[in-house]
Design a protein that fits this description.
Elements: H1 3-59, H2 63-145, H3 147-154
Helix pairs in contact: 1-2
């Protein structure tokens, strides 16, 4: 078995590792998109409720209603802050997944190059063997058919 063939399982493993890293990167990217969408939605709700509070104050909201509204806005603000943190973690996770994918892609390409080099070396070695065999065959054929060679040995 040639060296290139022996390395194929290593290449297959590298390809599978890259595919896995690619799937994890895609999952991480979806997580970032989802976290961004949730943040945008929460920020939108927060703006709407703040605008609504201003309108209610202008309309003459009571003290208890104002406290409840402010408490709700505080909880909504906390939710926005938590979602920003979740988005930051998702972005960090995506960046880490991208680095892992890049590393696995680099490994796969490196293994591929090693296999290509091994296959080329195997081809060169095979070509040298074939050429040597052809040269030996031609030399034997030449020696068998050379009448001067037989005559020269008999007189020497």
């Amino acid at each position: 078995m040639t060296r290139g063939r022996r390395l194929e399982p290593v290449h297959d493993l590298a390809v599978e590792a890259e595919r896995g890293a690619s799937r994890r990167l895609a999952d991480a990217e979806r997580e970032v998109v989802g976290a961004q969408e949730r943040l945008v939605q929460l920020e939108h709700y927060e703006r709407e409720y703040r605008a609504s509070l201003q309108q209610r104050v202008a309309d003459g909201i009571g003290a208890a209603g104002l406290r409840d509204y402010q408490a709700f806005l505080a909880r909504l603000g906390e939710a926005v802050a938590q979602q920003r943190s979740a988005l930051a973690r998702a972005v960090d996770g995506r960046d880490a997944a991208r680095e892992q994918w890049l590393a696995s892609s680099t490994r796969r390409r490196a293994v591929g190059k090693v296999i290509e080099q091994a296959a080329a070396a195997d081809r060169r070695a095979s070509e040298r063997r074939e050429q040597r065999d052809l040269d030996e065959h031609a030399l034997r054929a030449f020696n068998r058919s050379d009448p001067d060679d037989d005559a020269g040995r008999g007189h020497g």
